[in-house]
UniProtKB/TrEMBL annotation, chains A, B:
Domain FAD-binding PCMH-type: 37-216
Gene Ontology MF terms: (S)-2-hydroxy-acid oxidase activity; FAD binding
PROSITE patterns to which the protein is assigned, alphabetical: FAD_PCMH
Keywords carried by this UniProt record: FAD, Flavoprotein, Oxidoreductase
Cellular component terms per the entry's GO annotation: glycolate oxidase complex
Family stated for the protein in its record: Belongs to the FAD-binding oxidoreductase/transferase type 4 family.
Protein name: Glycolate oxidase subunit GlcD
Tagged with keyword Oxidoreductase: yes
Necessary cofactors: FAD
Keyword Acyltransferase annotated: no
InterPro entries per UniProt: FAD-bd_oxidored_4_C, FAD-bd_PCMH, FAD-bd_PCMH-like_sf, FAD-bd_PCMH_sub2, FAD-linked_Oxase-like_C, FAD-linked_OxidoTrans_Type4, GlcD, Oxid_FAD_bind_N
Top-level taxon of the source organism: Bacteria
Length: 471, 471
């Protein structure tokens, strides 16, 4: 609980009803999309505009009270869990699309807009915003910016950072900065825009974003290729790219994922396959048809057991929606679902999937793997039970080995979910101790009293590298 | 001159012949592509590998000696002029293409490789590296990374930062860091890769870069549209984009530029036109033909006086080469050529060109304007004479007003040339005093003793905003 004087100051800024600290408000903001993490905030505040955010930050800064910016809390890294208490700043009231500029192909939005609502609005205007995290029906653009969200279209179109041209943000001090603009090119000083994207709420509170829009693809087509051997599926991925074809989507599901997705979405998928590739190409019709034709040939050359091409856009959409539901489907299996995003160069995905399976077996835990094969971004997902401490310990050991394997294969500990709380002990494995020191230095420049989302990204103690048992 | 003990230490690292401080070496490294700037270094060093760079940095750091990384010195912002003396570190010996990874579509290179040589090598392998600064026949990839170089293909393909996936770099302390990797997605901590790109040698010396490659376009076509009214040309630019067509290249030349380019390249351009657009589309043949057809219609609708479509790739190449020669052609007019890169949202280019002309007339100076209209990146270029101090003063006043106008129209002081020495007094206009403080803080984290390219990006005194005379 905050001091009553401070609470009064905050209520004076946002109005009586927009600062809450009743048990319901505190409990519902004590956790996010990440399993097994909970910590109570002291209050929850809902600012209406940038000036309010600035005024709030001045109060919190003066009293050294932690503040955690939050959209819909769908992140999977514990990014919005208030581990040191403080105030959760929920951005949902700041949800306006301020402008769509048809001449410059940009949109300027507030951070609280729901991703899917934004995308639908843009599509109605005949434009396209590609980043499409699986959580997009509830996630916010502000949350996507904080985490640099990816999605199924990342291979061809890139991720959130490729679409953020400019930001307005409030520093810990309450000062308001503006970076970039409606500019494709801007090299005036260090790129603070790209530094803020993916900074997980540790450097500033984003209050406005100018996003790049692109012309929409005119046509798309979806196909499935099914494999009895996981290596054949992985080789197909590399071979498609090697053939200079960049599909819009190139997704992978292993056998356990196929089973649960099919049970959930009733697609009639063959349950005896080792792996399925879900492939979508978009663009002009003649090119899409030609690419899908060529991709089918490659799948056959690489011994796909069967190939099916969606005959209608609706059928294609159904397949994509089923893939997006993988997390939800897996979550029905057991009480706790831990979805990770170890990422490797795309040439290494077969090796990585086999490593994951070996590690899961070694620790006797259930791990399904699916993900964005085209960009090497895999989602090994453990289905477990948080109440079984001994099993959870084994799951954690397994994931530590999985991150280790990803690094060893030239990859990273997180491709699109962020570091947050859960990956913090592993960050040093990827960026080294000098990298950590540089990042901590940057944090200190933006937030000298460490009030912006403290306890995230940088762990008190880095986890020691595990010794991989290659036996 | 450095102390003889320090010189010995440096020669012990690189070998006797690779540290120079004879007058020829010092004078040839006292200036770069920027006119009217010269400052003598104390020495010039040519490292052979990353370990030598690290060892050199340790020596220079210990003695607080400035170090300026340099490729071919083609930059236009005074970025490599050693304003505080010190050692120029020339990267030409580190010019290897270390790997082209055909499965992951990446190339790993040393910084000293010449951009055009790299591009040609990649194209021979059937791949494509889009960033194409006009200086590419002599510039290096390391220089392009330091300045975040753009080029003629930036509209469709982006600039250097969109193609740098990972870096190896040496800090001021001599410590070696590695960022990113062969990974399309990596959100492990702050994005140090994008922070280093465009940091103008002020944060670290880049010693290795992993670059993203893409499938090459199969076909391209070039066309010219000529206008009697500059506004019609500008409206055409916006209307092409509004029609959801993103050309590979969309270049603008005003009348004075047309005249000198034609005189230089003997193209037979009509010399009475107010503006010419040079447009290139690439991709699959049927789409290119369709886009060029539609673009021609738009040009006609917007009252182009005449339109000519290159009938052969050679003719197209000739037009593009002529455009690339604009700087060289203008440089023949008078002893001193000052090429700037004020950038505005693309919807504002007509307004910006008229502002430039108004400002040039007000100050009675010669300014030609050409540039990358599609991304609002204009190159107002003054032809003048450095020996005429009074005229140079008027040119400087004119450029200050041009930057002011760019900012007022939602633009920036530099789209692709960097801040360096020449834009440093204006940086605050774009990023604000808080932005400057953040950037200085970041600089301090990477380079606490300010030995990496000191005196750049941050001016001792910011220039006061000029009062625009709207009369």
């Amino acid at each position: 609980m905050l001091d009553s004087q401070i609470k009064k100051q905050l209520r004076d800024i946002v109005g009586e009803n927009h600062y809450k600290d009743d048990p319901e408000a505190l409990i519902t903001h004590s956790y996010d999309g990440t399993p097994m993490l909970q910590s109570m905030p002291d209050g929850v505040i809902y600012p209406e505009n940038t000036n309010q955010v600035s005024a709030i930050m001045k109060v919190l800064s003066q009293h050294r009270i932690p503040v955690i910016g939050r959209g819909s809390g769908t992140n999977l890294c514990g990014g919005t869990v208030p581990v040191q208490g403080g105030v959760i700043m929920v951005m949902h009231r700041m949800n306006a699309i301020l402008e769509v500029d048809m001449l410059n192909l940009t949109a300027t939005v507030q951070p609280g807009i729901i991703t899917k609502q934004f995308i639908e609005h843009i599509e109605q205007l005949g434009l396209f915003y590609p980043p499409d995290p699986s959580s997009m029906s509830i996630s916010t653009i502000g949350g996507n910016i904080a985490e640099c969200s990816g999605g199924l279209r990342g291979l061809k179109y890139g991720t959130t950072k490729d679409y953020v041209l400019g930001l307005e943000a409030v520093l810990a001090s309450g000062e308001i900065i503006r970076t970039g603009g409606k500019l494709v090119k801007d090299v005036a000083g260090y790129d603070l825009t790209k530094l803020l994207v993916g900074s997980e709420g540790t450097l500033a509170i984003v209050t406005e974003a100018t996003l790049k829009l692109v012309p929409p693809p005119k046509y798309k087509k979806t196909m499935l290729a099914m494999y009895k051997d996981i290596y054949d599926a992985a080789r197909t991925v590399s071979k498609i790219i090697e053939n200079r074809i960049i599909p819009a989507t190139l997704e992978f599901m292993d056998n356990p994922t196929i089973r649960v997705v099919d049970d959930f979405a009733k697609l009639g998928l063959p349950l005896d396959m080792a792996a399925i590739l879900l492939i979508e190409q978009d663009g002009d019709q003649e090119l899409v048809e030609r690419d899908i034709q060529r991709i089918s040939e490659i799948c056959r050359e690489e011994k796909a057991d069967s190939i099916s091409i969606a005959s209608t856009p609706e059928e294609g959409m159904k397949l994509m929606t089923a893939r997006r539901s993988a997390f939800t489907a897996l979550a029905r299996l057991r009480p706790t679902t831990i979805l990770e995003d170890a990422t490797v160069p795309r040439s290494k995905i077969a090796e990585m999937v086999l490593e994951i399976n070996r590690i899961a077996e070694k620790h006797q835990v259930n791990i399904c793997t699916f993900g964005h094969a085209g960009d090497g971004n895999l989602h090994p997902t453990a289905t477990t039970d948080a109440r079984d401490h001994e099993e959870i310990h084994r799951v954690e050991e397994a994931f530590a080995e999985i991150f280790e394997a990803a690094i060893r294969l030239g990859g990273t500990i997180t491709g699109e979910h962020g570091v947050g709380l859960v990956k913090a002990p592993f960050l040093e494995w990827k960026v080294g101790s000098v990298g950590i020191e540089l990042m901590k230095g940057i944090k200190q420049v933006f937030d000298p009293h460490n009030i912006l989302n403290p306890g995230k990204m940088f762990a008190k103690e880095s986890r020691r590298r595990v010794v991989i048992d290659r036996g």
